[in-house]
Specification:
CATH class of the largest domain: Alpha Beta
Structural class: alpha/beta
Order of helices and strands: EEHEEEEHEHEEHEEHEHEH
Distance between the termini: 34 Å
Shape: elongated
CATH architecture of the largest domain: 3-Layer(aba) Sandwich
Oligomer: single chain
Bound molecules: S-adenosylmethionine
Mean pLDDT: 93
Strand content: 15-25%
Number of strands: 13
CATH superfamily of the largest domain: SPOUT methyltransferase, trefoil knot domain
Number of helices: 7
CATH topology of the largest domain: Alpha/beta knot
Number of domains: 2
């Protein structure tokens, strides 16, 4: 159903690649142009806000609407650039819950990068990185973030660990039972971090042993119940953001 951009009260936020500065013309991409023209019925003079992950958030106006195209012009900056905490999510894609859902929710929870990882028990054999990236953009627009999380290409478990940047602590969600609770392990954490969750069947014993032998890995528990993989990833992100990220900051 068509909506009205005026009624949306400048609440439409668009992620663009172009640089943003006062007076600059910005061309929305095809999908955004369609949305503005045919869903929001944009008219010249209507307002939207723009961000590109580098230049903060900008008020912009619809400068021109023709049958086929729409042009935006940047007016003034309404917020400086801000980053989310330096937290990645490495996750084994799972069958029942599409990765799209996880990407959207993780983006809302303020993750900086998403890394799909194929473990021995991962059932899913293919992912669609373009679609995941589109979901990341949509969630960033909707949630008020000023950056879009990076979606990495899928890698094997072995490659993930071999290429791991050693200064980044990897909180390994291990339902095995004898690990520290994530909230305790991460309280006061400073520096880059990541959370790792497994697939439906969990990590196999060799993978668990390999993880536990690495100096940058901290095994953690999320409590006494076995959570579904998607629940575990989102719960872990929320816990980490509460004790070491930006959930405890006032806005
Ligand atoms: N291996 C389990 C089984 O087959 O009963 C299930 C694995 S669980 C569905 C998927 C992933 O979620 C796990 O590999 C782990 O990373 C994470 N997970 C689930 N519950 C957890 C908990 N209580 N503590 C830590 N991690 C958990």
């Amino acid at each position: 159903m068509a909506e009205d951009l005026k009624e949306a009260g400048g609440k439409v936020r668009l992620y663009v690649n172009a640089p943003l500065a006062a007076g600059i013309a910005v061309a929305p991409d095809e999908g955004q142009a369609h949305y503005l023209m045919h869903v929001m019925r944009a008219k010249a003079g209507d307002r939207v806000t723009l961000f590109n992950g580098r230049d903060g958030e900008w008020m912009a106006e619809i400068a021109e609407v023709s049958k086929r195209a729409i042009a935006l012009r940047c007016l003034s900056r309404i917020a400086p650039q801000a980053e989310v905490p330096d937290l990645w999510l490495a996750f084994a894609p799972i069958k029942k819950t599409p990765s799209d859902y996880l990407v959207q929710k993780a983006a809302e929870l303020g993750v900086r990068a998403l890394l799909p990882v194929f473990t021995r028990r991962t059932i899913v054999t293919r992912i669609n990185p373009e679609r995941m990236a589109a979901n990341a953009v949509e969630a960033a627009q909707q949630s008020g973030r000023l950056s879009v999380p990076r979606v990495a290409a899928g890698v094997s478990f072995e490659r993930l660990l071999a290429d791991w940047p050693k200064e980044r602590t990897l909180y390994f969600c291990d339902e095995g039972g004898d690990a520290l609770p994530l909230a305790d392990a991460a309280t006061g954490h400073v520096g880059p971090a990541a959370i790792l969750t497994g697939p439906e069947g969990g990590f196999d014993p060799a993978e668990r042993a390999a993880l536990r032998a690495l100096p940058f890995v901290v095994p953690v528990t999320l409590g006494p119940r076995i959570l579904r993989a998607d629940t575990a990833a989102l719960a872990a992100l929320a816990i980490w953001q509460s004790v070491a990220g930006d959930f405890s900051q006032q806005h």
